Amino acid sequence: MTRIVCIGECMVEMAPLDSAATYRMGFAGDTLNTAWYLARLLGDRAEIGYFTAVGTDSVSDQMLGFLGSAGIDTSSILRRADRTLGLYMIQLQDGERSFSYWRSHSAARTLAQSGDDISTALRGAGIAYFSGITLAILPPEDRAHLSRALEVFRSAGGTVVFDPNLRPKLWGDPQDMTQAIMDAAGLSDIVLPSHEDEATWFGDQSPEDTARRYAQQGAGIVLVKNGPGEMIVHNGAGLSRHQPEQVSAVIDTTAAGDSFNAGFLASHIAGEPLDQAIAAGARLAARVVTYRGALVEEAVLGHELAG
Ligand code: ADP
């Protein structure tokens, strides 16, 4: 059975209910969203682990309980007595969502203090999944520990999957971001960028440019998402184009890319051909964007019926 380990930060999410002064607490974060969808899609056909660091307080316990009840293995998650979870709050104004973050001292920022912890978490895994946000929250020396652990994992036959998920606000200097992202792509087998962000920060003129730039780093599969636009894939066979499902009433694009990645990977590890795996990712994301929030149970049920 394949074990997939997602590495990154899961935060407390405070989302407004109808009355703007009342908030509901949840848990979310890009790599966690992908882990959650993978666990929901694959059930007992795979083991999905999450690797991060959390506190020893009760909200950290609640988060572990939440992950566990979603079928995600939390046994290698680190506990830090002097830190707790990062938090973000969603504000709604005239229907537009804005986000405020309290994450600069989160426990997750310490997840790569020792490369050995990461190697332990990856023991027995076939796939390691991480993102540009995972990199952004780490001090540079810890980022090197993560890279080294991923290199060792890969040289022992593991597959490394990376979503660049560019978040310039988390980086002091955009050049540090672009350099770290390209370095990480260089040790990845599958890279899953979104063209819009890439165009802004790397100057790519087209999704094809994005695909070629990452392919030159050595990734065997580069799959460039582009919102409702055509996706471009670069693999050993060259470039190919794939239309995502059309969605007439988009409600909330939160976790579109994260759920896409899960739908794609779930199908890919089941041995489906690339074009079917891409269609599966797009089918799941198309359902996710028709609901509010990151983790959409209804989208998964629909996906299983459709798949
Ligand atoms: P991210 O959430 O990382 O910015 P994208 O916006 O590129 O990612 O979207 C990821 C995938 O989600 C797309 O490839 C597509 O399959 C689906 N998707 C996103 N937005 C839409 C949309 N408006 N209509 C249909 N599908 C969408």
How would you characterize this protein structure?
The chain is an alpha/beta fold. 40% of the residues lie in helices and 23% in strands. It has a nine-stranded mixed sheet with strand order 6-4-1-10-11-12-13-14-15, with helices on both faces. The longest helix has 16 residues. Bound molecules: adenosine-5'-diphosphate. The site of adenosine-5'-diphosphate has 17 residues, from helix 9 and helix 10. The site of adenosine-5'-diphosphate (ADP) has 17 residues, from helix 9 and helix 10.
**What is the string of SSEs from the N terminus onward?**
EEEHEEHEEEEHEHHEHEHHEEEHHH
E-strand count: 15
Please summarize the sheet with the most strands: 9 strands, mixed
Attached small molecules: adenosine-5'-diphosphate
Mean pLDDT value: 95
Q: Structural class of the helix and strand makeup?
A: alpha/beta
Strand content: 15-25%
Provide a count of the helices. Answer: 11
Instruction: Compute the CA-based radius of gyration.
Output: 18 Å
Helix fraction bin: 25-40%
Query: Termini, distance in Å?
Result: 20 Å
Shape: globular
Short descriptors:
307 residues, alpha/beta, nine-stranded mixed β-sheet, four-stranded mixed β-sheet, 15 strands, globular, binds adenosine-5'-diphosphate
